[in-house]
Amino acid sequence: MKQRVEMKTTIVILAAGEGTRMKSSIPKSLHRVAGKSMLRHIIDTTSNIEPEQLIVVHSPNTEDTIKKSFLKQKLYLLNKISP
C-alpha cells in the first residue's frame, strides 16, 4: 500500500515592476484595474489554492508601499536583487 504524502503549496508572485515606463511613482503591481490593484487580483485568484506561503518578489523601493496595501494579508516579501 502506498503512503499518501501531503504536499505544501508555496506561491511566488513576481511583482518587481516599478512602473517607470508608465511614468508613475506607483509600483506597477499596485496600479488599479477594475477597482483593485493588479497584485490584489493575483492574490485573490490564488486564494482558492490556499497556499501555505505566499511570497511576493518586489523592487527594492516598494516594500513599504506593498506592506501598507496588504496589512491584513500574510505575505512574505522578498526584495529583488539587481543583477
List the main descriptive attributes of the protein structure presented here.
83 residues, alpha/beta, two-stranded antiparallel ribbon, 2 helices, elongated
Structural write-up:
Helices cover 19% and strands 24% of the residues. The chain is elongated. It has a single domain, classed as Spore Coat Polysaccharide Biosynthesis Protein SpsA, Chain A. It is of the alpha/beta class and 83 residues long. The longest helix is centred in the middle third of the chain and has 9 residues, at 38-46. A three-stranded parallel beta sheet has the order 1-4-5, with helices on one face. The chain has a two-stranded antiparallel sheet with strand order 2-3. It starts with 9 loop residues before the first strand and ends with a strand. The chain has two helices and five strands.
**Category by helix and strand content:** alpha/beta
Shape: elongated
SS elements, strand count:
5
- Overall number of domains: 1
The CATH class, by name, is Alpha Beta
Q: pLDDT below 50 for ≥5 consecutive residues: which ranges? A: none
Q: Look up the CATH topology.
A: Spore Coat Polysaccharide Biosynthesis Protein SpsA, Chain A
Q: Overall pLDDT, averaged?
A: 83
CATH architecture: Alpha-Beta Complex
Sheet with the most strands?
Answer: 3 strands, parallel
Order of helices and strands: EEEHEHE
Radius of gyration: 15 Å
Strands ordered across the widest β-sheet: 1-4-5
CATH superfamily: Spore Coat Polysaccharide Biosynthesis Protein SpsA, Chain A
Number of helices: 2
Task: Please bin the fraction of helical residues.
Answer: 10-25%
State the end-to-end CA separation: 49 Å
DSSP strand content: 15-25%
